[in-house]
């Protein structure tokens, strides 16, 4: 019987690479995205496109309203997306986002009988987000196996984070080796409705630097000239 995995996909470079890696390891993949009121909604179109291109079993979009609590430049239009690096945890951090997303993915994984959840968190080029650290993932996995019927009955679930300690360049190299079409992905925090990137935000800078370091042509469509 094929092993099943739920894969969180945002339409971005990292999560698309994770999906390809899960498939390469023989998992039947069920992808999940979240329409949470984010500013960069072009990512939802990209998530569906990449899931379809990679041939997942099922792609699901769950609607949430994180704008109702705000607190992030991605969920509150009154907070500008920064175009420099102020240091510390940036305003693009969405409070409790990965905890909410992983909890819903956990529920679907239990329904499906999946043995793993794959997520593209990264502790190297991660913008300082606290819910992208190894300690956080370990704590969530422990909680997941305490909180579910499957866990109590001995069917433990693993949170897979293959990108955790990879640089952006190495993530791109891994994806290229697996045939990922990065032209389908959108990483920008403020991409326009056509999916064109600003070239200025933190996510754009990390993505562009990754392609440069990997020595791979950048397929990103920019609405304006990217940063040097």
TrEMBL record:
<feature type="binding site">
    <location>
        <position position="198"/>
    </location>
    <ligand>
        <name>Zn(2+)</name>
    </ligand>
</feature>
<comment type="similarity">
    <text>Belongs to the QueC family.</text>
</comment>
<keyword id="KW-0067">ATP-binding</keyword>
<dbReference type="GO" id="GO:0008270">
    <property type="term" value="F:zinc ion binding"/>
</dbReference>
<feature type="binding site">
    <location>
        <position position="188"/>
    </location>
    <ligand>
        <name>Zn(2+)</name>
    </ligand>
</feature>
<comment type="pathway">
    <text>Purine metabolism; 7-cyano-7-deazaguanine biosynthesis.</text>
</comment>
<feature type="binding site">
    <location>
        <position position="204"/>
    </location>
    <ligand>
        <name>Zn(2+)</name>
    </ligand>
</feature>
<keyword id="KW-0436">Ligase</keyword>
<protein>
    <recommendedName>
        <fullName>7-cyano-7-deazaguanine synthase</fullName>
        <ecNumber>6.3.4.20</ecNumber>
    </recommendedName>
</protein>
<keyword id="KW-0862">Zinc</keyword>
<dbReference type="InterPro" id="IPR018317">
    <property type="entry name" value="QueC"/>
</dbReference>
<comment type="function">
    <text>Catalyzes the ATP-dependent conversion of 7-carboxy-7-deazaguanine (CDG) to 7-cyano-7-deazaguanine (preQ(0)).</text>
</comment>
<dbReference type="GO" id="GO:0016879">
    <property type="term" value="F:ligase activity, forming carbon-nitrogen bonds"/>
</dbReference>
<dbReference type="InterPro" id="IPR014729">
    <property type="entry name" value="Rossmann-like_a/b/a_fold"/>
</dbReference>
<feature type="binding site">
    <location>
        <begin position="9"/>
        <end position="19"/>
    </location>
    <ligand>
        <name>ATP</name>
    </ligand>
</feature>
<keyword id="KW-0547">Nucleotide-binding</keyword>
<dbReference type="GO" id="GO:0005524">
    <property type="term" value="F:ATP binding"/>
</dbReference>
<dbReference type="Pfam" id="PF06508">
    <property type="entry name" value="QueC"/>
</dbReference>
<dbReference type="GO" id="GO:0008616">
    <property type="term" value="P:tRNA queuosine(34) biosynthetic process"/>
</dbReference>
<keyword id="KW-0671">Queuosine biosynthesis</keyword>
<feature type="binding site">
    <location>
        <position position="201"/>
    </location>
    <ligand>
        <name>Zn(2+)</name>
    </ligand>
</feature>
<keyword id="KW-0479">Metal-binding</keyword>
């Amino acid at each position: 019987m094929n092993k099943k995995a739920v894969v969180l996909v945002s339409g971005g470079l990292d999560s698309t690479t994770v999906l390809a890696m899960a498939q390469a390891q023989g998992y039947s993949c069920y992808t999940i995205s979240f329409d949470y009121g984010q500013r960069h909604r072009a990512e939802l179109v990209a998530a569906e496109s990449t899931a379809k291109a990679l041939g997942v079993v099922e792609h699901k979009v769950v609607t949430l309203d994180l704008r109702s609590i705000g607190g992030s430049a991605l969920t509150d239009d009154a907070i500008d997306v920064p175009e420099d690096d102020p240091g510390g945890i940036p305003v693009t951090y969405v409070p409790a986002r990965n905890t909410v997303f992983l909890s819903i993915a956990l529920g679907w994984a239990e329904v499906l009988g999946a043995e793993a959840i794959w997520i593209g968190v990264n502790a190297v080029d991660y913008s300082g987000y606290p819910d992208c650290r190894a300690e956080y993932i370990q704590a969530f996995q422990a909680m997941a196996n305490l909180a579910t019927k499957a866990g109590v009955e001995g069917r433990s679930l693993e949170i897979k984070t293959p990108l955790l300690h990879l640089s952006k360049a190495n993530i791109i190299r891994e994806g290229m080796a697996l045939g990922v079409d990065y032209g389908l992905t959108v990483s920008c925090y403020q991409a326009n409705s056509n999916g064109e990137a600003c070239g200025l935000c933190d996510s754009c800078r990390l993505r562009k630097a990754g392609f440069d370091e990997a020595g791979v042509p950048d397929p990103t469509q920019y609405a304006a000239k990217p940063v040097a």
